[in-house]
Amino acid sequence: MYQKIFEVNEAFTRRMMELQDMDPASKYYGGIIDPIMGVARPSHVGTPRIIAAWTASVLNADSDYYQSHALIERLEKASQYMLNQQHGDGTISLGATNYHSPPDTGFVVVGLSQIYLLLKKQSSGIYDQVRFDIKLFLERAIPALLTGGCHTPNHRWVITAALSFLNQIFPDEALVRRAKEWLAEGLDYTEDGEWTERSNGIYNAVNNIMLFHASRNLKIPELLEPVRRNLELMQYLVHPSGEVVTDYSGRQDFGKPSNLSNYYLIYRLMASVDQNPLFAYMADFAAEFAAEPGSVDSNAMVGHLLYPDLMVNDIERTPIPNHYVKIINQKYPRLEYLGKAAALGHQFKILHSAPHTAFGSPVVRYRKDNQSGTVMTNVPSFFSLRHGKLRILGTKISTSFSPGIVFFDEFEVREGGYRLRTVMEKGYNAPITRDLLEKLEKVEGRPWYLLPHEHREITHLQKHAIAVEVTPYQDRWSIHVKSDQLEEVFTQIIFILGEEGELNGEGVKQIQEQQYFLTGGKAVYSVGKEKIEISPGAHEHWLGTLREDVHPPGCIYLSINLMTPVDHTIEIKLT
């Protein structure tokens, strides 16, 4: 593992030298140009990330750049860039958004604190300028983190970790008090180890590493409990290929290809802390996918150098299972909590964030050798499947009732399968009563938005129930879709397939590029030697896309068109 992490860091160090702005007249002087954005950025995935990689190289006796004066000069310029980019209030700006941002400053502080602690251990004076500049940056950041707020759930633990590091370097009880104010909100995880944002591709790993640091620095061992639970859960949330399940994420990794590489460091550290064979195996597995160092706060090579006592490699390995059915959050009291939230003042509107009401929703993970399936609730797709290299990225149902994509909010285990159900409602708004109107301020040509709509009565309330039963068999899956008896609701079952495959079949009719009907019979979708058959199709209406549904590019869409009442069973055969 060390050799892989070392080689990745070494190659990255070399490559990033070409991108450093060396023009003294440039506002980005010393910064490393982002190859996508074309400018340098002071965020945790910008110049500080490269500072971490370069520091790990100049301090590592195995590196070609060990004690390299040329690279140290580059580090000095990069650290000066960071001081120049730091605002007077101690913050940095993310750049893509989030200006004068305490949480983004927190990410950087967590990373630069580790670098400072590494540099502090060095007896040679050649690192003095870099060490001085980084310490100055950290000291300037203290007021921002003592007073600053957050946007998202994970930001709380980022800021907590940052405060804990600052207290290590600049001991101050005020830093500890502020960290404990954040911790007093309570750690947001389910019994099974799911975090609020359900972000298996990004923010799980962020929460885990931040709470590891906070636990260690503040000497609060119980902060590691949710970390353990999430790391244990992740063994069920990775496909055989190493791809992480992102099909139900509440953040920007939703549906995006992702791997375990950003979990490497936390698995490595926790394997040692707990002497855990599963975590040791998962660290090995994660290292296989390392292609670049992580962000400044979780650079794996820095972790190796800073925590050599936790990098022992003699722990037994326990491989993850390749046959299982795991139901996640089956017992979580989500509806009870949602009922309590309805009484709060925020009405599910949280400034610059989201309420994440899908948190704690049931998820089923199914694995049988190279077959890996996911059944989900409260997200646009209710089913996805991997069969070797073949990918059903999602399966969704859209109707004209609401209109749009159906989100299933009921879940039950039934006869070897899983039943998802929802009841949609749609009514009409009655006039506002005269007594309420008379209380309103007189406004000429009263705008629609000045009316008290919350007091309108609902008339002609309609309900439409739809259920899906998803059942795995030996080499096939069954999807049974059944609605209530409400007639003439346009309905579509849509399979979202990886664009790398080929779609054929007598009943397959192209609507437009990458979008097809399955009008009858079966469709055959193949990637290399793997194939699936989807049948039977139907074409009870001609609409290509229903209102409020969207088909983002980069996928193949296969639609089965139905009219209610619906009672249709689809079989997916694996060959």
Automatic annotation (TrEMBL):
InterPro entries reported for this sequence: Terpenoid_cyclase/PrenylTrfase
Top-level taxon: Bacteria
Name used for this protein in its record: Heparinase II/III-like protein
